[in-house]
Amino acid sequence: MEYEQIIGQALLTGDHDTGMRRTTCKLAASTAMFCGCGDVHDQKQIHVVEIVHNDGTEQTIAALCPSCWTKNKAAIETVAKKATALHIEAKQTPPVVRVATWNRSIIVPGV
User: Fold this and answer.
1) Do the bridges between strand 96-100 and strand 58-64 make them parallel or antiparallel, or are there none, so unpaired?
2) pLDDT at residue 8 is higher than 80
3) What would the pLDDT profile of 33-90 be if each residue is shown by its tens digit?
4) Would you state the pLDDT for residue 50?
5) Facing residues of 40 across strands?
6) Degrees (nearest 5) of the Cα angle 86, 91, 55?
7) What are phi and psi of 81, to 5 degrees?
8) What global pTM score does this model have?
């Protein structure tokens, strides 16, 4: 699916979340063509780990194949919990860690 098709479909249907998620996956798969394990990234299989900062900006911190996502999910959840605790201790609003896939977004619990 081309970027224009993804964006057009999102605009026509009003489903902006799906459009953003799929654009993120396509961009991550074409930018980081290979996972750290050597697998080739597929835009419909990739797991893109992002931090949503308090000011609304988003930052991609990892692009993982399904196998690496499964292997590293617990470690990513642990880091999200520790980051949340540090922000709360400093009386700051913690950022949100989310994982974008072709079909859904997953919020990594930080508490």
Assistant:
1) unpaired
2) no
3) 999 999 999 999 999 999 988 888 989 999 999 999 999 999 999 999 998 899 899 9
4) 93
5) 34
6) 90
7) -65, -40
8) 0.83
Structure tokens at 33: 């063509």
Q: What's the rounded Cα separation, in Å, for the pair 111 and 108?
A: 9
Beta-carbon contacts of 21 under 8 Å, excluding residues fewer than 6 positions away, are 100, 101, 102, 104, 105
Sign of the torsion formed by the C-alpha atoms of 12, 7, 1 and 62: negative
pLDDT at residue 15 is higher than 60: yes
Q: Which two tokens stand for residue 83?
A: 């980051």
Token representation of residue 101? 């896939």
**Contacts within 8 Å (CB) and 24+ apart, 93-97:** 93/54, 95/51, 95/52, 95/53, 95/54, 96/51, 96/52, 97/49, 97/50, 97/51, 97/52
